[in-house]
Design goal:
The protein has 214 residues and is of the alpha/beta class. The chain has eight helices and five strands.
């Protein structure tokens, strides 16, 4: 069995490639990432994840890995994000939580054949891809929290600025996390290619990594 993390910075194209691969590897296990929506349902996204929520996401990631890597389960596993969510723990600094989860992830990764496909998408590209979605989230936030009309423009600007700042903040943190985990890593760029070109490059890369292990 092999395990492949489909990872990348925010709005890099992880989910798109992850879902695209399902048609080509029908016998493989596809594990979606553990994220705020998994735990609390409606949420404003990674830019608004608290330290406590990220701690719970990381704890559940460890549990999920242990289930996926049981000896009896020998099939190929594609896991969206996987241990790369350590980048969000790193965002809060290199304190107790970071040191703990870094140690646990490194220990677990040594127990299985884990590889990382990292989609390298620059933050300015991610912003263009995701901006409309972020604006939709802000509109939902305004409605759900009954923000008064005279405050809506100000709140919208503040929350959009936070989304944008987080994209630029997280990009180097994902790169640093790659170095920390030190797993076999394969990089694919998604900086201006058409969707078809990106997906085709991703499929070919995955094919070289896993061979005929379907």
């Amino acid at each position: 069995m092999g395990m492949v993390f489909i990872s990348g910075s925010q709005s890099a194209g992880k989910t798109t490639l992850f879902n695209y691969l399902k048609d080509f590897y029908p016998q493989a296990k596809f594990q979606p990432e553990i994220n705020p929506y998994t735990l609390v349902g409606k949420h404003s996204g990674g830019a608004f994840v608290t330290t406590d929520l990220q701690k719970e996401i990381s704890r559940l990631t460890i549990e999920q890995f242990k289930r996926l890597s049981k000896p009896a389960k020998k099939r190929l596993v594609f896991w969206e994000t996987g241990f790369m969510n350590l980048a969000y723990v790193l965002r809060d600094g290199k304190g107790e939580n970071y040191l703990y989860f870094k140690k646990e992830y490194l220990k677990l990764a040594s127990l299985a054949e884990v590889k990382v496909v990292f989609i390298d998408t620059r933050p300015e590209v991610s912003w263009q891809i995701r901006r409309a979605n972020y604006l939709k989230r802000v509109q939902e936030y305004l409605e759900d929290n009954h923000i008064k009309e005279e405050k809506r423009e100000e709140v919208t600007q503040l929350r959009m600025a936070r989304y944008k700042k987080n994209l630029w903040l997280m990009y180097p943190l994902f790169k640093e996390t790659l170095e920390v985990l030190n797993l076999p890593t394969y990089v694919i760029e998604n900086n201006g290619s058409s969707l078809e070109e990106f997906l085709d490059k991703g499929r070919q890369l995955i094919g070289r990594i896993v061979g005929n292990d379907r």
